[in-house]
């Protein structure tokens, strides 16, 4: 059961995100615009178009945990922070500093920190104070290539990033500075997306190598840093690059967005050893869109509701029903 | 399948080389044989192109790859997925170039760079466009 609508006419829709309450959707694309969508009866209506914030493609958007701010990351090398004022958004500030395209922006659950990453190979961590002032507190250069995505841990101040260099990096704050604590190697091609499981104990990554990997933090031996091990690899399921992955905070189901135009949902086998998890394909929509699916996101409140977007400019809302 | 391959070849053979006043066909950068088409089912095809750049210069090879991506995305009338590679053995940094050419995010960003865009447009625009 689904609903589809054309969000970004004549261009790619790169990303779509639910606000924390699940009442709005923000989408962004190759037309350099950000669109905010609200539900009107059975359909989604465009409430606002933010057209002049960026001079190039808007690659990702992210809502602050309180839902009052929206951050947008663009190929124009800037990140815009927008403040919601009723149905409108006003550009509060523009974060500059990256040398070239910003590929991702993410808010920490605390709401006080923001992370951005770029083709310039760096990850920047920004602090925001009560007066809405943003300050860059760390620039970390752990990747050797274009950094594609950053994601925060759901409960701890821990950050993960993934890159064109095929690796995933995990960062922690040490003495007021952020540093890379672990490098997760294993994928054989660009890693495009990352998502933590609801507890934050595991991380899932998806790649151009057409696999999904599940990583778990291992208990460290005395005196050494925690290490992350790959405890599961899902291969043979995706026909092309897996561009995005999302772990449902309500049900634990794992959804993927693929370059073969398909959307898939994986469920974890509850009887398996937690250190050797087993996932099986629970649902597959082979032609979810007529072109590559770039993004997939679970609704924050309503279990089973998913949104995806595609190179053809469309957004689709899905209802996933798992057989209990 | 051969018909489809010819359709694809017809689109790419007139692309102009970024440096020389010749088409990719004239310079043997692309040939009929360099196009492979696989049926993905439901009227969709996988197209694999292996091109041979004339000089070992890395940025020119990526530029040709970019031209191929752009022209095919614009001009192919049927549903397709595309893979573009440098012919094996023609280049020392093959893997690096292939990775860049096939990263659609990198391709999109490159086409937003005014200088690169201008060069690509000049290479892919047909004289009577």
TrEMBL record, chain A:
GO biological process, one term: iron-sulfur cluster assembly
Superkingdom: Eukaryota
Alphabetical list of PROSITE patterns matching this protein: WD_REPEATS_1, WD_REPEATS_2, WD_REPEATS_REGION
Keyword Repeat: yes
WD repeats: 16-37, 51-83, 95-136, 140-172, 184-216, 286-324
InterPro entries named in the record: CIAO1/Cia1, WD40/YVTN_repeat-like_dom_sf, WD40_repeat_CS, WD40_repeat_dom_sf, WD40_rpt
GO cellular component: cytosolic [4Fe-4S] assembly targeting complex
Pfam families from the UniProt entry: WD40
Keywords, alphabetical: Repeat, WD repeat
Subunit-structure text: Component of the CIA complex. Interacts with CIAO2A and forms a complex with CIAO2B and MMS19; the interactions with CIAO2A and CIAO2B are mutually exclusive. Interacts with CHD1L, ERCC2, IREB2 and POLD1. Component of the MMXD complex, which includes CIAO1, ERCC2, CIAO2B, MMS19 and SLC25A5. Interacts with WT1. Interacts with CIAO3. Interacts (via LYR motif) with HSC20.
HAMAP family: ciao1
Function in brief: Key component of the cytosolic iron-sulfur protein assembly (CIA) complex, a multiprotein complex that mediates the incorporation of iron-sulfur cluster into extramitochondrial Fe/S proteins. As a CIA complex component, interacts specifically with CIAO2A or CIAO2B and MMS19 to assist different branches of iron-sulfur protein assembly, depending of its interactors. The complex CIAO1:CIAO2B:MMS19 binds to and facilitates the assembly of most cytosolic-nuclear Fe/S proteins. CIAO1:CIAO2A specifically matures ACO1 and stabilizes IREB2.
Assigned protein family: Belongs to the WD repeat CIA1 family.
Designated name of the protein: Probable cytosolic iron-sulfur protein assembly protein CIAO1
Lineage: Eukaryota, Metazoa, Chordata, Craniata, Vertebrata
Name of the gene: CIAO1
Automatic annotation (TrEMBL), chain B:
GO terms of biological process kind: chromosome segregation; protein maturation
Keywords: Chromosome partition
Protein name: Cytosolic iron-sulfur assembly component 2A
Residues of the MIP18 family-like domain: 7-71
Subunit: Monomer and homodimer. Component of the CIA complex. Interacts with CIAO1. Interacts with IREB2. Interacts with APAF1.
Pfam families: FeS_assembly_P
UniProt-listed InterPro entries: FSCA_dom_sf, MIP18, MIP18-like
Keyword Flavoprotein: no
Gene3D superfamilies: 6.10.250.1280, Fe-S cluster assembly (FSCA)
Family: Belongs to the MIP18 family.
Keyword field contains Transferase: no
